[in-house]
Amino acid sequence: MERPPVDTDEGGLWALMDREEARLRRSPLIVRDIDMGKHLQDMVCRLSGVHCPDVRVHVVRTPWFNASMAPNGMMQVWTGLLLRMENEAQLAAVLGHELAHYLERHSIERLRDAKSRAGAAQFMALFGLVGALGQLGVMAGMYSFSREHETRADRLGLQLSQKAGWSGHEAPKVWDNLLQEAKILGGDDVGKRSPMFATHPAMDDRQDTLRKHIVGEGDVNSQSYAKLIARHRMGWIQDEIRRAQYDESLVLFNRMVNTRPDDHQALFGRAESRRLRAKEGDQALALTDLEQAARLHSDSAPVVADIFRSLGLIHKDRRQAPQAIDAFERYLKLAPEAADAGLMNHYISELKT
Question: What is the mean pLDDT of the chain?
Fold first, then answer.
């Protein structure tokens, strides 16, 4: 896409985004994984065709569901979204949607729709928050387009992903899965009250529209996607737990376990969410999941050490000293340099006496 003159609205916005992208590249939240970056860039090229050289993909480690596309070609994909994707076809649908906003220049339309200089300044200030990435509360509003824009992006994004060879049948599932999480706290009418959904078409209408435009079959690529994120997945699961939105997280982890009952990482995520939520019956359910995860894990994978930490804490709370000691010792064997190793050794000494 040709760069607009700097003295135009669009050129000014591009210049602002260039500065924000330079800041973004230095952010400690950027996931610096060459193989993942290349794979996502290849997906974008497959979707965008001749526009491939104009788009740069940045993976940002933050546990919320979000992807965005700036008018200068800067695309952000947040790890909370990547964690929720079940296959490559679902991710292609999201990337296609964001590319559609870019190709149809929706952000420029929104800027020109600002009714006053103050309105335009406010709009551009939202883009200015992108580089800092600490302003997570504006996630939904940062690139919020009109419902008409969203509907057009849904249709074009689906066309792009299907033309590139991915299955269109996975696209409606993305929004249905996200809606199920949001309903936990927002109720059945969350689409009317949530900032994330308020600027989007009604979910039922959105899924119907997507289904009407599905043609034929295509690639899904579940296994290759699982391999793509495998190195980071446990860390992203821990990030999700640290959000402390345990009811929402349980919807995600339940879906993961239902899809693959032997997924020890998802079992850990579900167990830890329940342990920390601490509602009646949660501890017993968490213990069952953790024991199952411990049986499934591989000792060669230190990322699963937290399974045994959580097991130890539950057994300690239940005054089951032998089981707690065994779990803490296995945790320390897997993670001898853990930040809380001193505390765990203290617990072991205390339990032995």
Answer: 84
Distances in Å between the Cα of 12 and the Cα atoms of 4, 9, 68, 132, 189 are: 9, 5, 19, 19, 39
> How far is 240 from 261, CA to CA, in rounded Å?
20
Q: What is the pLDDT of residues 52-95, one digit of tens each?
A: 999 999 999 999 999 988 888 899 999 999 999 999 999 999 99
- The residue-averaged pLDDT of 127-137 equals 41
Nearest to 240 by CA among 231, 230, 250: 250
What's 169's DSSP letter?
A: G
Closest by alpha carbon to 39, among 232, 185, 245? 232
Three-class DSSP category at 229:
helix
* Alpha helices in the chain, H assignment, sequence order: 9-25, 34-48, 79-84, 88-103, 106-113, 117-128, 139-142, 147-163, 171-186, 190-193, 195-198, 203-212, 222-242, 246-259, 264-277, 282-296, 305-317, 321-334, 341-352
Structure tokens at 134: 């600490």
State the pairing for strand pair 74-78/67-69. Answer: antiparallel
Q: Other C-beta atoms within 10 Å of 17: how many?
A: 22
Query: Cα separation of 173 and 271, whole Å?
Result: 25
Count of alpha carbons within 13 Å of 8, Cβ hemisphere only?
8
Banded model confidence at residue 198, pLDDT cuts 50, 70, 90 = low
* Whether pTM exceeds 0.90: no
Please state which of the ranges 34-38, 139-143, 265-269, 293-297 shows the lowest mean pLDDT: 139-143
Q: 277 with 246: CB under 8 angstroms? A: yes
